[in-house]
């Protein structure tokens, strides 16, 4: 029912740093360390944080994070205002493919307090790690020129509307045009200037 790979590529921009609570470079170091420690399944730097998996309270020791993962693709977002990060991992390893989305919350000093992961695998809605990898690596996530960036409030309202759509079909989402959605391993865009995200899935 849930895809961790939430993509609003048409209007997601880099967050405008009005009141940074955490440094961007610190958060970048923290996500880099999170990703690299997945290769051996090291959890020492994660184990003091509160952990939820697929919205349920859990322990990092019993999670997917405690095993070595062959990562095909990783991408992280860094929110300096909320001292939070989001990292997506795509693992196509045929022994057990996964797509994992993880939010991490920090104190301004960089102490990890909370980890929330959405772990999807075989049987989940539109799950196809090979397809997710194929489309995710074709997306352009390079920085948007400063003059063309939306405000933090506009970006947040758009993302909230997208998520609300899953529980309320009347939600109006401010899609851009063209717009494409990557849901699980399925991509809605066809490369046309009129591609729309306003479709029934
Ligand atoms: C994560 O992604 C970056 C950028 O694509 C890449 O340079 C790095 O090697 C990746 N890390 C791992 C552990 O796969
Ligand atoms: C998964 O995605 C790949 C790449 O797009 C595609 O070739 C394959 O047919 C898909 N598998 C299923 C079961 O849909
Ligand atoms: C669903 O969204 C519409 C449009 O924003 C809103 O008017 C309505 O109150 C929402 N319904 C519920 C049950 O939240």
TrEMBL record:
Q: Does Signal count among this protein's keywords?
A: yes
Q: Where is the DUF8021 domain?
A: 148-198
Q: Which Pfam families match?
A: DUF8021
Is Zinc found in the keyword set?
no
Q: Check the UniProt entry and state the signal peptide residues, or none.
A: 1-20
The alphabetized UniProt keywords are: Signal
Q: Which InterPro entries match?
A: DUF8021
* Stated name of the protein: DUF8021 domain-containing protein
Give the source species. Answer: Candolleomyces eurysporus
